[in-house]
Amino acid sequence: MFVDEVKVFARAGHGGKGCVAFHREAYRPKGGPSGGNGGHGGDIILEASHDLNNLINQFYQPRLIAESGEAGMGKGMDGHAGKDMIIKVPCGTLVWRLPSPAAPAPETDDEEEADAPTAVPIATAGRPIIRSGGVRAVELDLTQEPDEEVPLHAPSKGELVCDLTQNGQRFTLCKGGRGGLGNRNFATSVRQAPRFAQPGEPGTEGNFLFELRLVADVGIVGYPNAGKSTLLAAISKARPKIAPYPFTTLTPQIGIVEYPDFRRLTLCDVPGLIAGAHQNVGLGHKFLRHIARCQALVILLDMAGTDNRAPWDDYKSLIEELELYDPALLEKPRLVVANKMDEAPAEANLKNFKRKIRKVPLLPISAAFDEGLPAFRKSIREMVEDAEAEAKARRA
């Protein structure tokens, strides 16, 4: 099972509470305060790993709860800190913070609503105050400006928290709570026997959406039954399912193309797109997002018109879907490939394509019979190297 999107609930560990204790032993019946501090709560840390290729682990474990810190003890003994929870995710994982569900408004009568004054937002940020007995209060800062309104164009997925693309990259998703101080920390010359301590702070928590966007050098885009899986199997050791009917490929497939000088390129075979994919028709968004990170694109066309579609209409439709989904996709270098040139109608369709679609270079191949594949390998390598050189020049 391939899982590329999953919702999880994450909560860091709570801090342990401080201890209220006094030193008692032989010949010291009235020793001073000796309450230990509570341990800090464990963090939830995400780590990108190239050994994983989907989010199936989080699919079966949607609740991530780290260990809480232990409470402090007598004789000045501090509690153990909670163990951090390290969650490994595949490279290319984006994490979105989902908005919290709004609480329902209380029902009131119309007369009461008319007389009620208009609520004024007040900033609740302030500094905590420790009261006697361990009770915590908050001093409000009324001079602070209220939070800005959320823009109307904010994405429905929420706030982007992190984007993990490099192997070994880490991000602290939720921070563990600080442990409370024991009563020994509040002893002074005036207050020599404090009988209160701090409670531990709660760990941060939230609902998140993990979204995987595969990291590949080249993305293969085309209509169903265009021969994308056949091409991937012909130039790499990937073995996707191949059958003579549309929508054979239901999940993105990854293949590695190796060259004699030990250069390797990663190809991503995206399931077939249909008209309206930019509006998520046929799970278009689920498939299109996997080519967003590709450095180059391959537009694969069925030049034989196996499914009674004109290749030039397929090309126009694919370009339109890519532009409507993300205009930045058309800025990537792309190679238009005419597949199934071994079939009879392909030659005539190729001539008509060049007449209807001008200034678009075509590379004719037949993936089923390994025709034109050396030129295809050379072309995609040149595209990727040019894209890498351009990216390096922009960073310089």
Write the CATH homologous superfamily of the largest domain: P-loop containing nucleotide triphosphate hydrolases
CATH class of the largest domain: Alpha Beta
Low-confidence stretches: 110-155
Cα radius of gyration in angstroms: 30 Å
What's the shape? rod-shaped
The largest β sheet comes out as:
6 strands, mixed
| Class derived from helix and strand content | alpha/beta
Number of domains: 2
- Beta strand %: 15-25%
Physical arrangement of strands within the biggest beta sheet: 12-13-11-14-15-16
Going by CATH, the architecture of the largest domain would be 3-Layer(aba) Sandwich
What is the rounded distance between the termini? 42 Å
Helix coverage percent of residues? 10-25%
Give the ordered list of helices and strands.
EEHEEEHEEEEEEHEEHEHEHEH
Number of helical segments?
Answer: 7
What is the total tally of β strands?
16
Short description:
With 396 residues, this protein is an alpha/beta fold. The chain is built from 7 helices and 16 strands. It has a 6-stranded mixed β-sheet, with helices on both faces.
Which features would summarize this protein structure in a list?
396 residues; 5-stranded mixed beta sheet; 16 strands; alpha/beta; single chain; 6-stranded mixed beta sheet; 2 domains; Spo0b-associated Gtp-binding Protein, Chain: A; Rossmann fold; rod-shaped; 18% helix
